[in-house]
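REVIEWER CHECKLIST
Item 1: Sequence provided? yes
Item 2: Single chain? yes
Item 3: Sequence as submitted:
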Amino acid sequence: MTDLSFAWSALGGDPALLSRVTTVQREGALAARLPVRELARTCVCACALAAAELGALRAGLAAVPAVRGDDGAVATAFTSERQLRVDGNAPVSFAPLSRFWRTADGWVRTHANYPHHRELLLRALEAPDDVDRVASALAERSAREVEEAVYAAGGLAVALRTPEEWAAHEQGAAVAARPLVERERLDEAHARVLAPVPSAPLLPTAGLRVLDLTRVLAGPVATRTLALLGADVLRVDAPDHPEEAGLHADTGFGKRSAALDLAADRAAFEELLAAADVVVTGYRPGALDRFGLSAEALAERRPGLVVAQLSAWGAYGPWGGRRGFDSLVQVATGIAAIEGSPEQPGALPAQALDHGTGYLLAAAVLRALTEQTTEGGTQVVRLALARTASWLTRTGTGPVPATDTVQGSAYDGPGPWLGETTSRIGRLRHARTPVSFTGAPSDWSRPPGPWGADAPRWT
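Item 4: Structure as written out by the authors:
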Protein backbone atom coordinates (compact mmCIF):
# COMPACT_ATOMS: atom_id res chain seq x y z
CA MET A 1 0.00 0.00 0.00
CA THR A 2 3.03 2.33 -0.10
CA ASP A 3 2.13 3.34 -3.66
CA LEU A 4 1.72 6.80 -5.06
CA SER A 5 -1.96 6.47 -5.90
CA PHE A 6 -2.81 5.85 -2.23
CA ALA A 7 -0.80 8.83 -1.00
CA TRP A 8 -2.05 11.13 -3.76
CA SER A 9 -5.65 10.18 -2.97
CA ALA A 10 -5.04 10.91 0.74
CA LEU A 11 -3.87 14.38 -0.31
CA GLY A 12 -7.05 14.93 -2.34
CA GLY A 13 -5.19 15.00 -5.64
CA ASP A 14 -6.59 14.41 -9.11
CA PRO A 15 -5.70 10.79 -10.08
CA ALA A 16 -5.26 11.84 -13.71
CA LEU A 17 -2.07 13.69 -12.71
CA LEU A 18 -0.32 10.47 -11.67
CA SER A 19 0.59 9.88 -15.30
CA ARG A 20 2.98 12.86 -15.03
CA VAL A 21 5.30 10.89 -12.72
CA THR A 22 8.31 8.82 -13.76
CA THR A 23 10.44 6.96 -11.22
CA VAL A 24 14.02 5.74 -11.43
CA GLN A 25 14.33 2.65 -9.25
CA ARG A 26 17.70 1.61 -7.84
CA GLU A 27 18.30 -1.64 -5.99
CA GLY A 28 20.15 -1.29 -2.71
CA ALA A 29 18.67 2.09 -1.80
CA LEU A 30 17.29 2.14 1.76
CA ALA A 31 17.49 -1.64 2.03
CA ALA A 32 15.22 -3.04 4.76
CA ARG A 33 12.69 -5.79 5.46
CA LEU A 34 9.87 -3.25 5.24
CA PRO A 35 9.22 -1.36 1.96
CA VAL A 36 11.12 1.75 3.07
CA ARG A 37 12.45 2.58 -0.38
CA GLU A 38 8.94 2.47 -1.82
CA LEU A 39 7.53 4.64 0.97
CA ALA A 40 10.33 7.20 0.58
CA ARG A 41 9.94 7.36 -3.19
CA THR A 42 6.17 7.75 -2.85
CA CYS A 43 6.36 10.60 -0.33
CA VAL A 44 8.85 12.57 -2.41
CA CYS A 45 6.95 12.01 -5.67
CA ALA A 46 3.69 13.08 -4.04
CA CYS A 47 5.38 16.26 -2.84
CA ALA A 48 6.92 16.96 -6.25
CA LEU A 49 3.57 16.37 -7.99
CA ALA A 50 1.79 18.74 -5.60
CA ALA A 51 4.48 21.35 -6.27
CA ALA A 52 4.22 20.88 -10.03
CA GLU A 53 0.43 21.19 -9.86
CA LEU A 54 0.58 24.48 -7.95
CA GLY A 55 3.41 25.73 -10.16
CA ALA A 56 1.41 25.02 -13.32
CA LEU A 57 -1.53 26.93 -11.89
CA ARG A 58 0.56 29.99 -11.03
CA ALA A 59 2.58 29.99 -14.25
CA GLY A 60 -0.47 29.47 -16.45
CA LEU A 61 0.91 26.28 -18.00
CA ALA A 62 -1.25 24.13 -20.23
CA ALA A 63 -0.10 20.94 -18.49
CA VAL A 64 1.37 20.01 -15.13
CA PRO A 65 5.17 19.64 -15.50
CA ALA A 66 6.63 16.16 -15.59
CA VAL A 67 7.82 14.79 -12.24
CA ARG A 68 10.85 12.54 -11.80
CA GLY A 69 11.58 10.58 -8.64
CA ASP A 70 15.04 9.02 -8.44
CA ASP A 71 15.73 6.45 -5.72
CA GLY A 72 19.31 7.67 -5.46
CA ALA A 73 18.32 11.24 -4.72
CA VAL A 74 15.55 10.06 -2.39
CA ALA A 75 17.78 7.70 -0.38
CA THR A 76 20.42 10.40 0.01
CA ALA A 77 17.87 12.99 1.11
CA PHE A 78 16.28 10.57 3.60
CA THR A 79 19.67 10.33 5.32
CA SER A 80 20.48 14.03 4.94
CA GLU A 81 21.37 14.52 8.61
CA ARG A 82 23.95 11.72 8.27
CA GLN A 83 25.38 13.11 5.04
CA LEU A 84 25.94 16.58 6.49
CA ARG A 85 29.51 17.75 7.06
CA VAL A 86 30.41 21.12 8.56
CA ASP A 87 34.00 22.00 7.68
CA GLY A 88 34.55 18.28 7.15
CA ASN A 89 33.13 17.23 10.52
CA ALA A 90 30.07 15.02 11.03
CA PRO A 91 27.65 16.28 13.72
CA VAL A 92 26.71 13.97 16.59
CA SER A 93 23.30 12.46 15.85
CA PHE A 94 22.33 10.68 19.09
CA ALA A 95 23.37 11.43 22.68
CA PRO A 96 24.76 8.59 24.85
CA LEU A 97 21.46 8.14 26.71
CA SER A 98 19.41 7.96 23.49
CA ARG A 99 19.49 4.24 22.75
CA PHE A 100 18.05 0.78 23.37
CA TRP A 101 18.34 -0.68 26.87
CA ARG A 102 17.61 -4.11 28.25
CA THR A 103 14.95 -4.26 30.91
CA ALA A 104 13.89 -7.05 33.24
CA ASP A 105 11.47 -8.40 30.62
CA GLY A 106 12.53 -6.97 27.27
CA TRP A 107 13.72 -3.72 25.72
CA VAL A 108 13.05 -0.02 25.99
CA ARG A 109 14.33 2.91 23.95
CA THR A 110 14.95 6.34 25.43
CA HIS A 111 15.44 9.74 23.85
CA ALA A 112 17.66 12.25 25.63
CA ASN A 113 19.24 14.39 22.92
CA TYR A 114 17.99 17.61 24.48
CA PRO A 115 19.36 18.54 27.95
CA HIS A 116 15.91 18.96 29.51
CA HIS A 117 14.83 15.52 28.28
CA ARG A 118 18.01 13.97 29.68
CA GLU A 119 17.40 15.57 33.07
CA LEU A 120 13.80 14.32 33.17
CA LEU A 121 14.87 10.80 32.22
CA LEU A 122 17.50 10.67 34.95
CA ARG A 123 15.07 12.08 37.50
CA ALA A 124 12.49 9.40 36.67
CA LEU A 125 15.09 6.64 36.99
CA GLU A 126 16.70 8.19 40.08
CA ALA A 127 20.04 7.64 38.39
CA PRO A 128 23.13 9.81 37.76
CA ASP A 129 24.26 10.83 34.27
CA ASP A 130 26.23 7.63 33.77
CA VAL A 131 25.50 4.98 31.13
CA ASP A 132 26.34 2.04 33.38
CA ARG A 133 24.22 3.33 36.27
CA VAL A 134 21.28 3.98 33.94
CA ALA A 135 21.63 0.47 32.50
CA SER A 136 21.53 -1.01 36.00
CA ALA A 137 18.44 1.00 36.93
CA LEU A 138 16.61 -0.10 33.80
CA ALA A 139 17.59 -3.76 34.13
CA GLU A 140 15.63 -3.98 37.38
CA ARG A 141 12.31 -2.80 35.91
CA SER A 142 9.88 -4.00 33.29
CA ALA A 143 9.79 -2.16 29.96
CA ARG A 144 6.18 -0.99 30.41
CA GLU A 145 6.94 0.23 33.94
CA VAL A 146 9.86 2.29 32.61
CA GLU A 147 7.72 3.67 29.80
CA GLU A 148 5.03 4.93 32.14
CA ALA A 149 7.39 6.22 34.84
CA VAL A 150 9.53 8.21 32.44
CA TYR A 151 6.55 9.68 30.58
CA ALA A 152 4.91 10.61 33.89
CA ALA A 153 8.06 12.58 34.71
CA GLY A 154 7.97 14.36 31.34
CA GLY A 155 10.76 12.33 29.75
CA LEU A 156 10.76 10.00 26.76
CA ALA A 157 10.95 6.21 26.84
CA VAL A 158 9.02 3.59 24.87
CA ALA A 159 8.78 -0.16 25.39
CA LEU A 160 9.48 -2.43 22.44
CA ARG A 161 6.27 -3.84 20.95
CA THR A 162 5.50 -6.20 18.11
CA PRO A 163 3.16 -5.04 15.33
CA GLU A 164 0.45 -7.24 16.85
CA GLU A 165 0.89 -5.69 20.29
CA TRP A 166 0.69 -2.20 18.81
CA ALA A 167 -2.43 -3.07 16.82
CA ALA A 168 -4.08 -4.23 20.04
CA HIS A 169 -3.00 -1.10 21.92
CA GLU A 170 -5.65 1.62 22.25
CA GLN A 171 -3.37 4.20 20.67
CA GLY A 172 -2.42 1.87 17.83
CA ALA A 173 -6.06 1.24 17.03
CA ALA A 174 -6.86 4.98 17.16
CA VAL A 175 -4.01 5.81 14.80
CA ALA A 176 -4.89 3.08 12.29
CA ALA A 177 -8.46 4.33 12.09
CA ARG A 178 -7.38 7.78 10.89
CA PRO A 179 -6.59 8.80 7.31
CA LEU A 180 -2.94 9.17 6.33
CA VAL A 181 -3.51 12.90 5.83
CA GLU A 182 -6.25 14.61 7.84
CA ARG A 183 -7.71 17.58 5.96
CA GLU A 184 -10.24 20.10 7.29
CA ARG A 185 -11.74 23.40 6.17
CA LEU A 186 -12.56 25.67 9.11
CA ASP A 187 -14.38 28.62 7.58
CA GLU A 188 -15.57 30.38 4.43
CA ALA A 189 -12.63 32.77 3.96
CA HIS A 190 -12.29 34.23 0.47
CA ALA A 191 -10.48 32.28 -2.22
CA ARG A 192 -6.73 32.84 -2.30
CA VAL A 193 -5.42 34.96 -5.16
CA LEU A 194 -1.87 34.03 -6.16
CA ALA A 195 0.33 36.22 -8.31
CA PRO A 196 1.68 34.69 -11.54
CA VAL A 197 5.22 33.25 -11.49
CA PRO A 198 7.73 32.54 -14.29
CA SER A 199 7.96 29.01 -15.62
CA ALA A 200 11.74 28.81 -15.21
CA PRO A 201 12.73 28.39 -12.53
CA LEU A 202 9.24 27.37 -11.48
CA LEU A 203 8.74 28.43 -7.85
CA PRO A 204 5.24 27.38 -6.74
CA THR A 205 5.46 29.06 -3.30
CA ALA A 206 7.16 32.29 -4.40
CA GLY A 207 5.85 35.30 -2.46
CA LEU A 208 4.26 33.17 0.28
CA ARG A 209 5.27 33.50 3.92
CA VAL A 210 5.63 30.44 6.12
CA LEU A 211 5.91 30.59 9.92
CA ASP A 212 7.92 27.53 10.96
CA LEU A 213 7.20 26.49 14.55
CA THR A 214 8.74 23.02 14.32
CA ARG A 215 11.75 21.18 15.73
CA VAL A 216 14.09 18.30 14.98
CA LEU A 217 13.31 16.68 11.64
CA ALA A 218 9.87 16.01 10.12
CA GLY A 219 8.52 19.55 10.42
CA PRO A 220 11.80 21.21 9.41
CA VAL A 221 12.04 18.87 6.39
CA ALA A 222 8.60 20.09 5.29
CA THR A 223 9.45 23.76 5.70
CA ARG A 224 12.88 23.28 4.09
CA THR A 225 11.00 21.95 1.06
CA LEU A 226 8.61 24.91 1.00
CA ALA A 227 11.66 27.19 1.14
CA LEU A 228 13.23 25.38 -1.82
CA LEU A 229 10.06 26.06 -3.80
CA GLY A 230 10.25 29.81 -3.20
CA ALA A 231 8.57 30.56 0.14
CA ASP A 232 9.92 33.04 2.68
CA VAL A 233 10.30 30.66 5.62
CA LEU A 234 11.01 32.04 9.09
CA ARG A 235 11.72 29.47 11.77
CA VAL A 236 10.89 30.66 15.28
CA ASP A 237 12.25 28.96 18.42
CA ALA A 238 12.13 29.77 22.12
CA PRO A 239 15.33 31.56 23.18
CA ASP A 240 16.06 28.98 25.90
CA HIS A 241 15.59 25.92 23.64
CA PRO A 242 18.21 26.04 20.89
CA GLU A 243 18.08 23.37 18.21
CA GLU A 244 20.85 20.79 17.99
CA ALA A 245 23.50 22.36 15.73
CA GLY A 246 23.70 19.58 13.17
CA LEU A 247 19.94 19.27 12.73
CA HIS A 248 19.60 23.02 12.44
CA ALA A 249 22.25 23.13 9.71
CA ASP A 250 20.75 20.18 7.82
CA THR A 251 17.18 21.48 7.81
CA GLY A 252 17.94 25.21 7.72
CA PHE A 253 18.54 25.53 3.98
CA GLY A 254 16.49 28.32 2.43
CA LYS A 255 15.23 29.59 5.80
CA ARG A 256 15.90 32.32 8.31
CA SER A 257 16.02 31.56 12.04
CA ALA A 258 14.76 33.79 14.85
CA ALA A 259 14.52 33.36 18.62
CA LEU A 260 11.28 34.68 20.09
CA ASP A 261 9.58 34.27 23.45
CA LEU A 262 5.93 33.72 22.49
CA ALA A 263 4.74 34.97 25.87
CA ALA A 264 6.97 38.00 26.36
CA ASP A 265 7.18 39.00 22.69
CA ARG A 266 3.54 38.47 21.81
CA ALA A 267 3.22 41.68 19.80
CA ALA A 268 6.14 40.67 17.56
CA PHE A 269 4.61 37.27 16.94
CA GLU A 270 1.18 38.71 16.15
CA GLU A 271 2.82 41.00 13.61
CA LEU A 272 4.38 37.96 11.93
CA LEU A 273 1.09 36.08 11.98
CA ALA A 274 -0.79 39.00 10.46
CA ALA A 275 1.24 38.65 7.26
CA ALA A 276 1.70 34.87 7.19
CA ASP A 277 0.18 32.56 4.58
CA VAL A 278 1.11 29.25 6.21
CA VAL A 279 1.76 28.24 9.83
CA VAL A 280 3.45 24.90 10.47
CA THR A 281 3.60 23.51 14.02
CA GLY A 282 5.48 20.44 15.21
CA TYR A 283 5.11 20.37 18.97
CA ARG A 284 3.03 17.83 20.88
CA PRO A 285 -0.73 18.41 20.47
CA GLY A 286 -1.99 21.21 22.67
CA ALA A 287 1.45 22.45 23.71
CA LEU A 288 1.09 25.75 21.84
CA ASP A 289 -2.61 26.35 22.54
CA ARG A 290 -1.85 28.65 25.47
CA PHE A 291 -0.20 31.01 23.01
CA GLY A 292 -3.31 31.13 20.84
CA LEU A 293 -1.83 28.74 18.28
CA SER A 294 -4.58 26.16 17.97
CA ALA A 295 -5.91 25.92 14.43
CA GLU A 296 -9.19 27.52 15.45
CA ALA A 297 -7.52 30.43 17.24
CA LEU A 298 -5.21 31.05 14.29
CA ALA A 299 -8.13 30.99 11.86
CA GLU A 300 -10.02 33.52 13.96
CA ARG A 301 -7.13 36.01 13.83
CA ARG A 302 -5.91 35.23 10.32
CA PRO A 303 -8.72 33.78 8.16
CA GLY A 304 -7.50 32.08 5.00
CA LEU A 305 -4.36 30.57 6.49
CA VAL A 306 -3.06 27.12 5.76
CA VAL A 307 -2.36 25.51 9.15
CA ALA A 308 -0.19 22.38 9.07
CA GLN A 309 0.11 20.36 12.27
CA LEU A 310 2.54 17.54 12.89
CA SER A 311 2.72 15.21 15.89
CA ALA A 312 4.32 11.92 16.85
CA TRP A 313 1.29 9.92 17.98
CA GLY A 314 -1.66 11.93 16.65
CA ALA A 315 -3.87 14.40 18.52
CA TYR A 316 -6.20 11.69 19.82
CA GLY A 317 -6.20 8.53 21.91
CA PRO A 318 -4.46 7.97 25.26
CA TRP A 319 -1.08 9.03 23.84
CA GLY A 320 -2.43 12.10 22.05
CA GLY A 321 -0.65 14.54 24.36
CA ARG A 322 2.67 12.72 24.48
CA ARG A 323 5.95 13.82 23.02
CA GLY A 324 7.66 11.51 20.59
CA PHE A 325 10.39 11.11 18.01
CA ASP A 326 10.93 8.89 14.97
CA SER A 327 13.16 6.44 16.86
CA LEU A 328 10.52 5.99 19.58
CA VAL A 329 7.65 5.58 17.14
CA GLN A 330 9.60 2.82 15.38
CA VAL A 331 9.88 0.99 18.72
CA ALA A 332 6.24 1.34 19.74
CA THR A 333 4.69 0.42 16.39
CA GLY A 334 6.59 -2.83 15.82
CA ILE A 335 9.07 -1.55 13.24
CA ALA A 336 12.06 -2.12 15.54
CA ALA A 337 10.85 -5.69 16.15
CA ILE A 338 10.46 -6.37 12.42
CA GLU A 339 13.84 -4.91 11.53
CA GLY A 340 15.65 -6.56 14.44
CA SER A 341 16.28 -10.08 15.70
CA PRO A 342 15.31 -12.07 18.80
CA GLU A 343 18.58 -10.89 20.37
CA GLN A 344 18.45 -7.19 19.47
CA PRO A 345 15.84 -4.70 18.22
CA GLY A 346 16.58 -3.04 14.90
CA ALA A 347 15.88 0.21 13.10
CA LEU A 348 15.08 1.48 9.64
CA PRO A 349 18.04 2.48 7.42
CA ALA A 350 16.93 6.11 7.79
CA GLN A 351 14.65 8.13 10.00
CA ALA A 352 12.10 7.42 7.32
CA LEU A 353 9.05 8.29 9.40
CA ASP A 354 10.43 11.79 9.94
CA HIS A 355 11.51 12.36 6.36
CA GLY A 356 8.50 10.68 4.78
CA THR A 357 6.01 12.54 6.95
CA GLY A 358 7.90 15.76 6.29
CA TYR A 359 7.55 15.47 2.52
CA LEU A 360 3.89 14.48 2.90
CA LEU A 361 3.31 17.51 5.13
CA ALA A 362 4.84 19.78 2.49
CA ALA A 363 2.67 18.09 -0.14
CA ALA A 364 -0.43 18.66 2.00
CA VAL A 365 0.39 22.36 2.33
CA LEU A 366 0.93 22.67 -1.42
CA ARG A 367 -2.37 20.94 -2.19
CA ALA A 368 -4.18 23.10 0.37
CA LEU A 369 -2.82 26.23 -1.31
CA THR A 370 -4.02 24.93 -4.68
CA GLU A 371 -7.48 24.17 -3.30
CA GLN A 372 -7.73 27.60 -1.68
CA THR A 373 -7.58 29.26 -5.10
CA THR A 374 -11.03 27.83 -5.87
CA GLU A 375 -12.54 26.88 -2.50
CA GLY A 376 -11.09 29.47 -0.13
CA GLY A 377 -11.35 28.79 3.58
CA THR A 378 -8.80 28.31 6.30
CA GLN A 379 -7.36 24.91 5.48
CA VAL A 380 -5.94 22.60 8.18
CA VAL A 381 -3.82 19.52 7.47
CA ARG A 382 -2.61 17.10 10.14
CA LEU A 383 -0.10 14.25 9.95
CA ALA A 384 1.41 11.94 12.56
CA LEU A 385 4.58 9.85 12.53
CA ALA A 386 2.65 6.93 13.99
CA ARG A 387 0.14 7.05 11.12
CA THR A 388 2.97 6.98 8.59
CA ALA A 389 4.38 4.00 10.50
CA SER A 390 1.01 2.25 10.25
CA TRP A 391 1.06 2.81 6.50
CA LEU A 392 4.56 1.36 6.24
CA THR A 393 3.84 -1.76 8.29
CA ARG A 394 0.53 -2.57 6.62
CA THR A 395 2.13 -4.08 3.55
CA GLY A 396 0.01 -5.71 0.91
CA THR A 397 -0.96 -5.53 -2.72
CA GLY A 398 -2.34 -2.08 -3.35
CA PRO A 399 -3.41 -0.38 -6.56
CA VAL A 400 -0.69 -0.25 -9.19
CA PRO A 401 0.67 3.32 -9.40
CA ALA A 402 0.00 5.02 -12.74
CA THR A 403 3.64 5.96 -13.23
CA ASP A 404 6.35 5.08 -15.70
CA THR A 405 9.31 3.23 -14.24
CA VAL A 406 12.94 3.27 -15.33
CA GLN A 407 15.36 0.73 -13.89
CA GLY A 408 18.53 2.57 -12.96
CA SER A 409 21.87 1.26 -11.81
CA ALA A 410 22.19 -0.01 -8.24
CA TYR A 411 22.53 2.56 -5.48
CA ASP A 412 26.24 2.78 -4.73
CA GLY A 413 26.29 5.56 -2.18
CA PRO A 414 25.22 9.20 -1.96
CA GLY A 415 28.04 10.77 -3.96
CA PRO A 416 26.12 11.89 -7.08
CA TRP A 417 23.38 13.49 -4.98
CA LEU A 418 25.56 15.55 -2.63
CA GLY A 419 26.43 19.22 -2.94
CA GLU A 420 28.74 21.70 -1.24
CA THR A 421 28.26 25.32 -0.29
CA THR A 422 29.76 27.98 1.94
CA SER A 423 27.76 29.46 4.80
CA ARG A 424 28.11 31.56 7.94
CA ILE A 425 28.45 28.34 9.94
CA GLY A 426 31.18 26.84 7.76
CA ARG A 427 31.72 24.88 4.58
CA LEU A 428 28.81 22.47 4.19
CA ARG A 429 28.49 19.15 2.42
CA HIS A 430 24.81 18.34 2.14
CA ALA A 431 22.20 16.23 0.41
CA ARG A 432 20.64 17.83 -2.64
CA THR A 433 16.88 18.03 -2.90
CA PRO A 434 15.07 14.97 -4.28
CA VAL A 435 12.03 17.06 -5.31
CA SER A 436 12.28 17.17 -9.10
CA PHE A 437 9.94 18.35 -11.85
CA THR A 438 10.43 20.22 -15.11
CA GLY A 439 11.49 23.75 -14.24
CA ALA A 440 12.06 22.98 -10.54
CA PRO A 441 14.85 24.74 -8.63
CA SER A 442 17.90 22.53 -8.17
CA ASP A 443 19.13 24.21 -4.97
CA TRP A 444 18.02 26.50 -2.17
CA SER A 445 18.28 30.27 -2.48
CA ARG A 446 20.37 30.54 0.70
CA PRO A 447 22.42 28.26 2.98
CA PRO A 448 21.56 27.89 6.66
CA GLY A 449 22.85 30.51 9.08
CA PRO A 450 23.47 30.46 12.82
CA TRP A 451 20.53 29.45 14.97
CA GLY A 452 18.41 32.39 16.14
CA ALA A 453 20.55 34.98 14.33
CA ASP A 454 17.83 36.60 12.22
CA ALA A 455 15.37 39.30 13.18
CA PRO A 456 11.78 38.10 13.77
CA ARG A 457 10.33 39.90 10.76
CA TRP A 458 9.48 39.12 7.17
CA THR A 459 11.81 40.05 4.37
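Item 5: Key structural point noted by reviewer: The longest helix spans residues 36-59.
Item 6: Recommendation: ____
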